[in-house]
Design brief:
Phage_TAC_11, two-stranded antiparallel ribbon, 2 strands, mainly alpha
Length: 130
């Protein structure tokens, strides 16, 4: 799967990661596959528990203790407006589905400048060789 990604969210700045078993946990808790859940979040059809589960399980997947993750997300969601959790939850799911936004596909290939065409004394035609 993907590597952990550090994200700012209303609970602070923490590492989040969703592995295969983490996705299974979220699917069981939300009755949604990851792409469908991401779509629900994008169009504003989410439930608070969906945000809670994505963030809680994402923290656990990145190495946080289960109890600590539950308390951190619970306290933050009781303290701050819920809409502030939507984008971080979307970023956690997007990172899992598509990889980090700053990780381009493929390898960087150095680009060499195009060579200048040879010029002859009378114009731009290439010289004739025998």
């Amino acid at each position: 799967m993907t590597r952990a990604v550090d994200l700012p969210w209303p609970g602070g700045e923490h590492a989040f990661r969703l592995g295969l078993n983490d996705l299974r946990t979220i699917q069981q808790k939300t009755d949604c596959g990851p792409e469908f859940l991401l779509h629900k979040l994008k169009i504003g059809q989410w439930y608070a528990d969906e945000l809670y589960e994505v963030l809680r399980v994402g923290l656990i997947g990145a190495g946080m203790n289960h109890v600590e993750a539950r308390k951190l997300v619970q306290n933050a969601m009781e303290r701050d407006p819920l809409i502030g959790f939507k984008v971080p939850a979307m970023e956690v799911l997007s990172n899992t589905l598509f990889g980090p936004a700053d990780d381009p596909v493929g390898e960087d290939i150095p680009v060499e400048p195009t060579p200048e065409p040879e010029k002859t004394a009378s114009g731009n035609s290439a010289p004739i060789t025998d």
